[in-house]
Amino acid sequence: MSEEHVDPEACRPPPASDEPVYRIHVFCCTNARPPTHWRGSCGGKGSRELCDYMCRLAMALGLGRIRINHAGCMNVCSHGPVLVIYPEAAWYRFENENDVAEILRSHIIGGRRVERLVLSIDPDTIHG
Ligand code: FES
Q1: In testing the pocket of ligand 1, which one of 28, 30, 37, 76 has its CB within 8 Å of the most ligand atoms?
Q2: Can you give the pLDDT at residue 19?
Q3: Calpha distance 59→96 (Å, rounded)
Q4: From the CA of 73, how far away is ligand 1's center (Å)?
Q5: Which of 1, 37, 41, 127 is the most buried (most CB within 10 A)?
């Protein structure tokens, strides 16, 4: 197709909207390091499978405008597996499917933090 046939409207970005694409965005660290690495890793503790489980559960519950993403290292490896939920920037540590399901049902659906899994981070402990 020559340039003169390109529809300029097709090249424009969609109109801006005040409405966010996702109402809630979850980032699960699924970074994996070798098991002997001194920092450890969330992926080495099963976070990838647990993140996928959370996705499947969210889909099974028909939750819309929620995105659950795999993410790289979030620099709090010794606390992992970890995830963070936006827009609140709420950090959680999780270990198993029950933890992930509780975060989904209580925090994401019910709007109530899961206190037993909240990760409070001392900025001085974050690896630079
Ligand atoms: S490997 Fe998950 S926070 Fe670093």
Answers
A1: 76
A2: 81
A3: 19
A4: 4
A5: 41
Ligand 1 center to 35 CA (angstroms): 13
Please list every protein residue whose CB sits less than 6 Å from any atom of ligand 1: 29, 31, 41-42, 73-77, 80, 82
Atom of ligand 1 nearest to the CA of 40: 1
pTM of the model: 0.83
Q: Which two tokens stand for residue 27?
A: 């980032």
CA-to-CA distance for 77 and 74, rounded, in angstroms? 7
Q: Over 70: is that where the pLDDT of 120 sits?
A: yes
| Residues shown for the chain | 128
Q: Where are the chain's structural domains?
A: 46-121
Architecture of domain 46-121: 3-Layer(aba) Sandwich (3.40)
pLDDT band at 114 (very low <50, low <70, confident <90, very high): very high
What residue spans of the chain are helical by DSSP H? 47-60, 97-102
